[in-house]
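Exercise 7 asks you to align residues with tokens for two separate proteins.
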Amino acid sequence: MLLGGDLWFETFAVPWLAGGPGAEALLSTPSTLMGIGAVASYVLFALGWVMFGLASLRARVFPAWISLLVVVGGVAGYQALLAPWGTPLGVAIATLGVWLVRSASVSHRTDERAATGARR
């Protein structure tokens, strides 16, 4: 996702900045193409998170409530760069991370118990 954001910047923003000498480029009006690119990146960002949440819900790889949090965060993520709209997605991803760490820890302990029981 970070690479996608960087590629957007490299494709749309860098040519705009390179169009003028120094700080003058920052004061110029961005092109229509840059505006279209910005809107497209917001829509694709939100749509990607919504689709990830729905796919996770359908595949049941995470608890349903976490998948639904990701969907809600994705919908709110359309305006993720404006406070406080990034908060729902951040909470959803943090919750998913905590769940993954806890489930990995439980799985690891279960594997250790099974291995210890097999040795006896």
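Second protein for Exercise 7:
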Amino acid sequence: NPAQPQVRFIGKGVIVPDENRVILPFSAIALKAVDVEIIKVFNQNMNFFLQSNLYDGHYQLTHTARPVFMKKIDLQKEYPDLDLNHWHDFTLELGKMVKLEKGTVYRVRLKFKKSYTTLSCADEGPDSDYSTVNWDNPDTYYYEGEYPSGYEWKKRNDPCHISYYNGDRFEARNIINTSLGLMAKSGAGNHYIVSVNQVGCQLQGGFIQSAKPKTGFSLHRQKRFCTTEPHRKSFCPDSPGRTRQSLAKTQGRGCAIPQQFRRQWPTCADGSKRLHLR
């Protein structure tokens, strides 16, 4: 029997050490091409994103993010000597696709259509399509379990039918490009000990992992999430890579999408823009 089209990311984890090249490996079988979609959670919306998600989450992305890249990657053209009916490993160099910002979440999705497969039936009948997300409506529910037009549940495991090409077959991974890792431990009296360590370091001849304490840093607590000039308090380390502080609980507010990615959003009482207000 011919291999069924599949794609999967290699490895686990979210944090990618900050270096000149950010490489994301994946594997594919029975596919001549894949579509790469990159969704960016804007830096000013990170607090709001983390209210509803862990670092690898994707809940309510229409409130905090926007797609910034979509492109078809032709595997057959780039690797003409490979037998694509077997599993092979490939890489995506994200820095060539988007301008990566440190500390920002990017959700990378790999999708494919029936016409991208090596199957003999790839060009028979209608091709599969992707469902669309109304990013301009903040009340739109973001959902990755998408179904193509003409989906039939009984045909969902037949790769010669468009029903096979649904969101369950696609892969997604969040990445954060950073050279720092933070760990906070809570104690009595609402006190926290926060440590800052290097995630990795660049050495001549290669890149190695490291977890050395970071010196010369300051931490900022942001009291409000949606203001024209957020109020912040700075904390300085009391030992290399560590600080001890008492933090009061604060309530978050809605967040804004940059002007170039939005049309018209409601306004906060203080005049600042927001996407969603709880």
